Prior knowledge:
- With about 110 residues, this protein is mainly alpha-helical.
- The protein contains six helices and no strands.
- It folds into two domains: about 5-35, no CATH class; about 50-105, Winged helix-like DNA-binding domain superfamily/Winged helix DNA-binding domain (Arc Repressor Mutant, subunit A), CATH 1.10.10.10.
- The model has no long low-confidence stretch (mean pLDDT about 80).
Amino acid sequence: MTGLPAISRTRRRPARDGFDALAFPALAEKARQELRAAGETSYRRMPEAWDQLTAQELHIAHLAANGLSNREIAEQLFFSHRTVGYHLHQIFPKLQVTSRNQLRAASPGLA
């Protein structure tokens, strides 16, 4: 028969991962504490660079990584190409890139 701590760990791992993915740090930390109490080491998730982007920035970064120009992105999102340029100006430092080629290379699963 499986012990109670093992059952506890199997139920708390998905909770921890889900809270991390949804950016609920307090609940994720609570799940980590409960995992530690059940005998499992659980380290704090380090956010990835892509996690720093807003939803709008993420969408623009995805389109730019796929090779669309600022004007093409602007047409799809119904705003100015200058607004796209502004967002890319905000995105590049967050992702530590300086060009669209680097953006494409830095976007696993997005491009």
